[in-house]
């Protein structure tokens, strides 16, 4: 299987290298507009610790909304199922940054992976701490699950989003007005924008997500990160809500739980088999990596990895 996987990753890298349609890099966060759209990396980590990668898989990029998976995991660990009184578990069918449903549904975000829901999760993590402490806690958590200390926040990206994230400020204010934030919007947004600015490579991300493909336990260190039930549920949310209003199409084409970010990364899990991270900065109309999705579609088809059968 490993030999086949290595060959498939190389094939995909070659096939996508010269693609002329690569999507559009996110330019609403100024530093992300500077990222080279020709970059492409992919890494797969298997349960015996084998890491197979191709392309720019060791280069760090802004993980953006992929961080919502880690923040949710941390919040569930602190507050358990009580978080579901403040955020739902349904796909929104709306763009990632939409405020339409939030207003109609009185400040209860549809799920933790759209911006409004992730801002509520940041508020839960902030609880009564200082934003700095919470940001440090998130970084340490991601370092621990990736078993890698070389993971940090890109302050340039975080500050740029703090300066320009007016849409997120609107969401935070709407949440606060509806009594679904305990802390002040600027403090919550500071945490949220910093977590989004985590810089990681595909190889680091594949390691960090491995527990989700192994029922909540790191299969290499044997370290349990979440309960079996919780891991299954996080995967279910990734499957149904991980690609915003493109989640149905992603499930249709790729067929594994995954979470995207506007930095062009996608973290995917193949339950019982592997964790995958891919990066290509150009995005499709839903804000999901265009070639990253294509790469996962090819990989899961060629390896027979859809969770829906083969
Ligand atoms: N920091 C980004 C935002 O709030 C995350 C969006 C994403 O990656 O989908 O707009």
UniProtKB/TrEMBL annotation:
Its EC number is 3.5.1.2. It catalyses: L-glutamine + H2O = L-glutamate + NH4(+). Gene3D superfamilies: DD-peptidase/beta-lactamase superfamily (3.40.710.10). Substrate binds at residues 65, 115, 161, 168, 192, 244, 262. GO terms for biological process: glutamate biosynthetic process; L-glutamine catabolic process. One of its GO terms (molecular function) is glutaminase activity. Keywords: Acetylation, Hydrolase. The keyword Cytoplasm does not apply. It holds the Pfam family Glutaminase. It is an enzyme of class 3 (hydrolase). The keyword Hydrolase applies. Belongs to the glutaminase family. Homotetramer. This is Glutaminase. The lineage of its organism: Bacteria, Pseudomonadati, Pseudomonadota, Alphaproteobacteria, Hyphomicrobiales. The gene is glsA.
